Amino acid sequence: MKIQEAIVVEGRYDKAALAGVVDTLILDTAGFGVFKDGERLALLRKLAAKRGLIILTDPDGAGFVIRNYLKGAIPKGQLKHAYVPDVYGKERRKRAPGKEGKLGVEGMPPDVLREAILRAGATVLDGEAQTREQGDLTPADLFALGLSGTPDAAERRAALLRRLELPEHMSAKALLAALNALYTPEELDELLKE
User: Fold this and answer.
1) Per-residue DSSP letter, 121
2) Pairwise CA distance, residues 154 & 160, whole Å
3) Beta bridge partners of 3
4) What is the pLDDT of residue 126?
5) Order of strands across the sheet with 53-56?
6) Residue 54 forms beta bridges with which residues?
7) How many CA atoms, within 13 angstroms, populate the side-chain half-sphere of residue 50?
8) Pairwise CA distance, residues 17 & 95, whole Å
9) Residues of the chain with pLDDT > 70: what percent?
């Protein structure tokens, strides 16, 4: 299912579980790390303004603390909330259940995640919009622009990240996803000329 909005989850395991369900940009908060990471929050604000943002956190107390923080940091009209039900148990990778004994996003079946995203009001894109548009950046484009795979790529990428006010530690792959989510090919071309 391809949707317009970007989705923010708590951690990398949640991100991995969701990647098989939905085709969109998925970011994580690094748990409570978002509270101290101004760059990550700035990126979430940019994405929310450009595409809209869906928050999908665990149904426990920690998940709601993160959700409420983001709800206060991002304008209401740019934010949608997806909720997973309270299901008691533990994820396969963990030795013991969480503090409240509930499954998180990573432990939910794909159909439950899909339903939560649809209930949140996600904008599902039709078949025509799902095809790759002419001009979308690919890894080969980043290489051609000198932003990956070249001796000075790290410096060039760092300069672009500063110019675009994106987190300085973004990998080439994360930069590619952010560029495709935030800018049209024409807008990006103009930025690169500067």
Assistant:
1) T
2) 10
3) 124
4) 66
5) 26-28, 6-9, 53-56, 79-82
6) 7, 80
7) 17
8) 19
9) 93
pLDDT per position as a tens digit, 160-187: 888 877 767 677 887 887 787 777 777 7
User: For residue 142, which of 166, 176, 169 has the smallest C-alpha distance?
Assistant: 176
pTM of the model: 0.73
Summarize pLDDT for 76-119 with one digit per residue, the tens: 899 999 998 888 888 888 888 888 888 999 999 999 999 999 98
Long-range CB pairs of 185-190 (<8 Å, 24+ gap) are 185/134, 185/135, 185/136, 185/137, 186/135, 188/137
Q: In the 8-state DSSP scheme, what is residue 20?
A: T
First CA to last CA across the chain, in angstroms? 36
- What b/e sequence results for 147-184 when a residue is b if at least 16 CB atoms lie within 10 Å of its CB, and e otherwise? bbeeeebeeebeebbeebebbeebeeebbbbbbbbbbe
Residue 166 · residue 43 · CB < 8 Å? yes
CA separation for the pair 108, 84 (Å, rounded): 8
Helices (H) and strands (E) in the chain, counts: 9, 4
Torsion, Cα 25 30 34 39, to 10 degrees, reads -60
AA identity, residue 36: K
Classify residue 152 by its DSSP letter: T
